[in-house]
């Protein structure tokens, strides 16, 4: 029976991904960035309001992080081995992951406050005026943590986005990077954490298993986002394929590696 339920979970996730392959083709101007705001991820998850995802992600493949340090650089990588090695019931696993997410949220708040005081925060220049303040904070959590809160990384990404913004044809690509990828992932992670904190005791076993799979899925997407961003910054610094000096080459590279999750390289 348990195997049958897990198979249903996998089918639901596959259906979600196939749905998003279609929605990823829609023009950004027709999509409300607030669409995810009321999504209930605890019990009635709506696939059509999930972020744009990569098609072929193996949710159950066991891997080890490349690094084993306790700094910000591996805070996503060590999640991978962390949740794969969790012992106990589904709800106990969710509680443990929830605690880890809460710890990271405390880091986010401290580091973002520091970035603001040092006047390194630049994202307000790239988001829509219609973007709510809480959505801006979610964007900052996702992007600055993916940059390890480092000044050099923040300034490099700012330069890249400013270069892309000079050509209005790149507007949709920048919006896709910010809203579909960064904001979409962080919204869902926060909703999952809210479900753990507020609804864990009232959910059925099947709902808890679904929540755990979706949570692991979003954490892997977050790893993919960070990996693609990190590789882009490195390529820019090394001027790979002349992307530092050629705005068109930069746009092509950014479109390939960063603008949407289905264009990211697999993390495995």
Automatic annotation (TrEMBL):
Residues 226-253 form a coiled coil. Keywords: Coiled coil, Plasmid, Signal. Residues 1-26 form the signal peptide. Transmembrane segments: none annotated. This is Complement regulator acquiring protein 1.
């Amino acid at each position: 029976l348990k195997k049958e339920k897990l198979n249903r979970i996998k089918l639901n996730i596959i259906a979600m991904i196939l749905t998003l392959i279609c929605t990823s083709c829609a023009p950004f101007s027709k999509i409300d960035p607030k669409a995810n705001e009321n999504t209930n991820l605890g019990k009635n998850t709506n696939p059509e309001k999930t972020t744009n995802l990569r098609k072929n992600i193996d949710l159950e493949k066991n891997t080890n992080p490349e690094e084993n340090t306790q700094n910000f650089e591996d805070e996503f990588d060590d999640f991978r081995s962390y949740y794969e090695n969790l012992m106990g019931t589904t709800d106990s696993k969710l509680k443990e992951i929830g605690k880890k997410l809460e710890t990271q949220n405390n880091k986010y708040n401290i580091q973002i406050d520091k970035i603001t005081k040092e006047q390194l925060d630049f994202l307000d220049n790239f988001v829509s005026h219609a973007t709510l303040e809480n959505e801006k904070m979610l964007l900052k959590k996702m992007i600055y943590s993916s940059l390890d809160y480092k000044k050099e990384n923040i300034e490099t990404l700012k330069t890249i986005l400013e270069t892309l913004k000079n050509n209005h044809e790149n507007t949709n690509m920048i919006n896709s990077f910010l809203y579909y990828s960064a904001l979409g992932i962080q919204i869902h992670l926060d909703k999952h954490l809210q479900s753990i904190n507020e609804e864990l005791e009232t959910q059925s076993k099947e709902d808890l298993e679904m929540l755990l799979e979706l949570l692991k899925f979003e954490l892997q997407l977050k790893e993919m986002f960070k990996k693609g961003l990190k590789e882009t910054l490195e390529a820019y610094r090394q001027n790979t394929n002349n992307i530092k000096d050629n705005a068109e080459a930069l746009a092509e590279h950014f479109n390939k590696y960063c603008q949407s999750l289905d264009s990211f390289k697999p993390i495995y």
